[in-house]
Amino acid sequence: MSENDNTTPGKDIGRTRGSAYRSHMPTTTPSVAIIGAGFGGLGAAIELERNGIDSYTIFDRGPGVGGVWRDNTYPGAACDVPSPTYSYSFELESEWSARFGSQAEIKAYLERCAEKYGILSKARFNTEIVAARFDEPTGRWEVEVDGGEKFWFDALICATGQLSRPKIPDLDGLNTFAGDHFHSARWDHSVDLRGKKVAVVGSGASAVQLVPAIVDEVSELHVIQRSPNWVGNKWNHKSNRQVKWLMRNVPSLARLQHNVEWVWYETRVPIIFNQFDPLRGGFHEWLKFKIRREIKDPELRKAVTPNYKVGCNRVLLSNDWYPALDRDHTTVHANAVTKVTPAGLVLDDGTEVEADVIIWCTGFTATEYLAPIDITGRDGRKLHTEWKSGPEAYLGIAVSGYPNLFMIYGPNTGSLTNTIIFLLEKQARYARQAIQRIAQNGGWIDVRQDVQDQFNAEIQRKLAGTVFTSGCPGWYHTDDGKVVAVWPGSHVAYARATGKVDFDSFEHGRPDRARV
Ligand code: NAP
């Protein structure tokens, strides 16, 4: 514990300059808790550092930085967005082994960034935040970690990610299975798959990478595909020595590569809008052609062809997924799982699938934003109660009733057409501007409810004209069908909307009790 550690409202662990101060006075160093040390949290910490704010503490329940890139160690784990844009724009990397970096490379990249920007000395790993409560009299947040310890901060940046809590369906008999079973995001490296009968449940982004990576090892592979996904080619050219040398020694080349990839991806935005149906139609035919070219079995071709619009779900990228499904020892079951038995799985058509190992590629609790942190705002408001029928925020960053709380990768900010890292940087910039304002004026800011409501009405109006509301499987919507995960527009539009904090959209408050 540092000497700044304290559990009384007057002090905090993030403030590194100055002595205890009265909270009605302008503060020069607001203390900030950043929750999560993945791409989002680390990016927010770096944004603060680069702007001279070093009074933050970054918490992560895991043992180091990296978030999903630390946790997903399954065979074949890699990015499906080109690494020149799936990296911080201010920290471009010349050493990617290929256009799409592997999990190990991305994790190492994030560790290097944390080291370079001096984040590690302000990080508390293996520390899970379980609750945060806004204390109106002092205008500060009381943050509780697992085990009961409490700290005080002027502001919170919640960067807990959408895909950090694995979801295994709550099936009958789950605990009766006699073999090994685990989620793809919690890979059990002690289990040897060689010569085993393996069942992979799910056919999303993780399964598409994992199945080709294990197909040669196993004796039988069963892929349980409740809904097929559209899968495109992964143009994953490798970087040779000469290219790497050039990238390293001509810095503007890495910038050029970043910009070209970014602009290329941004041109994909129209495919999410219904008015561009003809354009999407061409893409659709191209993806169907890929299925015909890579799969010989007509029944299998039919089974893997989605019946929903291209783009309403993530278009996956793989050159070896379909060939892996078409192998003699692979069986694709176009079914859902209904039950687990000691011997394997029972599917919704009654088929019993025998397995030695079950791998759950069944996704994450993606729409439960910020869970399981118990967040209490002004007047005792509970965020999770208010979000019961779907989370809402302003710009995906601020929530009315929860002052000085800023989210990274909040509701309706998922990136389907370009790189999420761009959006995370814009959110960090926004939070940093707000924190600078708090530093100047003291007190707190709270987005106005009418501003938030108007913003969300507009988001849902835009979504009505996109493929996301055309009825597709996946996790972008709540069980009631409200789309809460994706941003219905271009990345340029998001950058414009978040470029400068409009402080008139916020209520400004002063604590009514001075700190001691
Ligand atoms: P996912 O896309 O949510 O896929 C979950 C799969 O499990 C779906 O196929 C789902 O079917 C299936 N499923 C769920 N419950 C089932 C049941 N009871 N019986 C049968 N099937 C069931 O999960 P994911 O593949 O882990 O990917 C999650 C997200 O992580 C992706 O969307 C992506 O954003 C991210 N990701 C990114 C990368 C990258 O390269 N950047 C790599 C991996 C993952 P339904 O479709 O019918 O629900």
Automatic annotation (TrEMBL):
<feature type="region of interest" description="Disordered">
    <location>
        <begin position="1"/>
        <end position="24"/>
    </location>
</feature>
<dbReference type="GO" id="GO:0050661">
    <property type="term" value="F:NADP binding"/>
</dbReference>
<dbReference type="InterPro" id="IPR051209">
    <property type="entry name" value="FAD-bind_Monooxygenase_sf"/>
</dbReference>
<keyword id="KW-0285">Flavoprotein</keyword>
<dbReference type="InterPro" id="IPR036188">
    <property type="entry name" value="FAD/NAD-bd_sf"/>
</dbReference>
<dbReference type="InterPro" id="IPR020946">
    <property type="entry name" value="Flavin_mOase-like"/>
</dbReference>
<dbReference type="GO" id="GO:0004499">
    <property type="term" value="F:N,N-dimethylaniline monooxygenase activity"/>
</dbReference>
<protein>
    <submittedName>
        <fullName>NAD(P)/FAD-dependent oxidoreductase</fullName>
    </submittedName>
</protein>
<keyword id="KW-0560">Oxidoreductase</keyword>
<keyword id="KW-0274">FAD</keyword>
<dbReference type="GO" id="GO:0050660">
    <property type="term" value="F:flavin adenine dinucleotide binding"/>
</dbReference>
<comment type="similarity">
    <text>Belongs to the FAD-binding monooxygenase family.</text>
</comment>
<dbReference type="Pfam" id="PF00743">
    <property type="entry name" value="FMO-like"/>
</dbReference>
